[in-house]
Structure formats: C-alpha cells, structure tokens
UniProtKB/TrEMBL annotation:
A divalent metal cation binds at E22, E70. The keyword ATP-binding applies. It is a multi-pass membrane protein. It comes from the Bacteria. Its cofactor is Mg(2+). One of its GO terms (biological process) is phospholipid biosynthetic process. GO terms for molecular function: ATP binding; kinase activity; metal ion binding. It is found in: Cell membrane. One of its GO terms (cellular component) is plasma membrane. The keyword Kinase applies. Its main location: membrane. This is Undecaprenol kinase. It comes from Aeribacillus pallidus.
Length: 119
C-alpha cells in the first residue's frame, strides 16, 4: 500500500514538474480548461463528453511522454546525435498528430453548435 501511494506521489510530482517546466504542457492544460468550459456552455451530449475527455486525457498524457523522451535524450547526451534528433522529432510528431486530430474532432463537435448560436 505504501509503495502504491509512493508511485502515485511520484506520478503527481512528474505532472507538476512538467507543468512548471513545459510551456506546451501549460498551453494544453489551458486549452483543456477552455474546451471543458465550452462543453458546459453548449451542453454537449454524454458521448461528446466521453470523446472530449478521451482527447484531453490522451493529449496531456502524450505531452508527458514527449517530455520524458526529451529528458532522457538530454541525459544521454547534449551533443548533436542523429538518433537523438530522430527520437525527439518522432515524439514531437506524435504530439502534433494527436493535436491535429483533436482540433478536427473539436471542430466537428463544436462548429455546428457555434453556428446555431450565431444564426
Ligand atoms: N542532442 C540532440 N541531437 C540532435 N538533435 C537534437 C538534439 N537535441 C535537440 N535536437 C533537435 O532540436 C529539436 C528541439 O529540441 P529541444 O530539446 O529544444 O526540444 P523542444 O521540443 O524544443 O523542447 P521543449 O518542449 O522543452 O522546448 C529536436 O526536435 C531535435 O530535432
């Protein structure tokens, strides 16, 4: 039980450290808060909430993994290495793919509701 609590504590420490050091992580948290506020404002359906929460959780989790890969790469070497470049670029690419898909899905969910409000 003590080990489980410790693991949880270290995981929370990891999230807090990423929040403090990673500008992109803070941007994603801010975007998540805005999307949740929009969801409440437009009274989105249960299935839409599930999709939105999966996207938000996935995005934040992926950003944390990206941070982990960046830190490991920096620990391996600060010198230029083509494999470190590939690793960092691939991790950044994963975040970009997920962010782009999230924006498209967000548009599909919210665009009709925004149009309805302004028409
Ligand atoms: N040691 C290295 N060897 C080769 N290329 C590197 C190395 N470190 C960084 N790069 C290249 O520079 C890019 C930016 O690296 P950096 O570590 O600044 O990541 P970042 O995404 O800007 O990090 P952060 O989100 O913390 O600002 C990487 O995507 C990679 O292409």
């Amino acid at each position: 039980m003590k080990t489980l609590l410790k693991s949880f504590y270290f995981a929370v420490q990891g999230i807090a450290a990423a929040f403090q050091s990673e500008r992109n992580f803070r941007i994603h948290v801010t975007a998540a808060i805005i999307v949740i506020a929009a969801g409440l404002f437009f009274n989105i359906s249960l299935i839409e909430w599930i999709v939105i929460l999966l996207l938000i959780g996935g995005m934040l989790a992926l950003e944390l993994v990206n941070t982990a890969i960046e830190r490991i790469a920096d620990a391996v070497s600060k010198e230029f290495h083509p494999l470190l470049k590939t690793a960092k670029d691939a991790a950044a690419g994963a975040v970009l793919v997920y962010a782009a898909v999230s924006v498209v899905i967000g548009f599909i969910i919210f665009a009709p509701k925004i149009i309805e409000v302004f028409s």
